[in-house]
């Protein structure tokens, strides 16, 4: 009886070991990769790595910036002026198209760093010394000239073309050029930020065109990050906050020049 019981116990024990023994290589699935990266879920940076408030305010040297290129002399009446390389390539295509239609586009102003704009501003400030109220003095300059640190010309996306007078574009050759630009500039990515009829901001500038694929990004960055408190370093800078320069001038542009 005891022998039969012992034999049965041994058989059961052996059977149990046989069925519970693990064979990792055959019976178990081992996941070698525990992280799956899908291309459509990779988040791209919202803004370029170089974009910050110093860049936005023109506090850099465009001749040394990798995103900028020098404008060839045949396209401008200035020396050693620069543009964002994407804006420049778009301008070259637009120039060729205009030339085929009988018009010559000439860049008379492009990138203007902070200190360059400061020179323009302070010369205008000195000319208006008879205006004693600093806010009124600044507002008079702001009809056409930007405060240093707030100009779109800091960005390398803006070009002033041919003649800096609205009246030139109301008749004759000037009107033909303006009509051509109005009809065709958007095809090359350009918009006109300072149109007539805006609620505030600079006066109309028929000569000023902006390369929207890049300037639209910078405008949105300014909307999210720029503050009047940052505007400083020149005569009359203390008026920026009272005037609301960021809202009314940096962002006071043609709605078509905003990114949707």
User: Compute the gyration radius: what is it?
Assistant: 32 Å
So, CATH architecture? 2-Layer Sandwich
State which percent range the strand residues make up: 5-15%
Tally the structural domains.
1
For this structure, what is the CATH class? Alpha Beta
User: Number of helix segments?
Assistant: 10
Overview of this protein structure:
The chain is an alpha+beta fold. The protein has a single domain (68-257), classed as Muramoyl-pentapeptide Carboxypeptidase, domain 2. The chain is 39% helix and 7% strand. It has helices spanning 2-20, 24-27, 53-56, 85-100, 114-127, 134-141, 172-184, 212-225, 240-243, 245-250, and strands spanning 68-70, 82-84, 107-109, 158-161, 190-191, 208-211. The protein has a 4-stranded antiparallel β-sheet with strand order 3-4-6-5. The protein is globular and about 50 Å long.
What's the arrangement of secondary structure elements?
Elements: H1 2-20, H2 24-27, H3 53-56, E1 68-70, E2 82-84, H4 85-100, E3 107-109, H5 114-127, H6 134-141, E4 158-161, H7 172-184, E5 190-191, E6 208-211, H8 212-225, H9 240-243, H10 245-250
Antiparallel strand pairs: 1-2, 3-4, 4-6, 5-6
